[in-house]
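Limitations

Structures in this collection are predictions, not experimental determinations, and the ligand pose is part of the prediction. Treat each record accordingly. The example that follows, with dinuclear copper ion as the small molecule, is included so readers can see exactly what is and is not provided: the inputs are given verbatim, and the output is the predicted complex.
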Amino acid sequence: MKLLETPSMTRTSSLRGLAFLSAFALTLANAQAEIRETSVWWLPRNVNMFGHDVDFLFYIILFLTGVAFIGVFFAMILFLIKYRYRPGVAAIHTHGNNALEVVWTTIPAFIFLALAIYGNEQWSKMRRQTPPANALPVAVVGEQFGWNVRYPGPDGKLGKMVAAKISKENPFGIDVADPAGLDDFTTYNELVFPVGRPVRLYLGSKDVIHAFYVPEFRLYQDMVPGRVYDFVWLKAEATGNFQLACNQLCGQGHYKMFGKLSVVPELAYEAWAKSKTPPPVTMTGR
Ligand code: CUA
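Predicted complex:
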């Protein structure tokens, strides 16, 4: 005898499928809610001083490509209808139009040039300007799979980092003889930034390429081992809780390489920093 599905069996299994799908969707929605404090469907909110320019450029490009998209598709559909096959109507043969070609090549060329110049200017502001002198220096060194973070102690100075000295035992590549580093304190996967004060990052890697990425800061920087990146800085304009996510596929544990990042009022930052007792030996990361 053949096994046949009865209508009621089909209904049960499709109901089960539906239940599974909605449970899956709920899990996804929860996972999203945990990562994103704000909109999942559009840009996350921006809290960095430089983010406005990044978003501005994004919207300009979105507008230009949107206009081009609508124009191209409108023309295409129009031509498809206008020049469709009709019996008895001969096809038109054209060798193009030089004036038109010059126009639609020159205009985009100038638009691209303008975007490149503007983008380059913004990039210079973000990465080529010297960070402000009152910036809080924070060292972040990626490893498989987590973030070593180092903050200056009461002297406000970080110990000097040397890329060649970065090792398993010395994730920050600190010179033990450097007095500036003696009162530094370290955390693991925990970052606190004061609001309204520039933060100068010193980024490095212990092993493979990682990337410092916080969408709400519109900030992304690869960290290639053997280098200390000392030119990245930001200024948070609003408080909140964010996630420092690694954005370079760096191994099996890449997905869980994230740090909790809070932006808090200056006084709360001072209190937090005070609560972190500096370890007697500051060479090790944790
Ligand atoms: Cu580190 Cu991905």
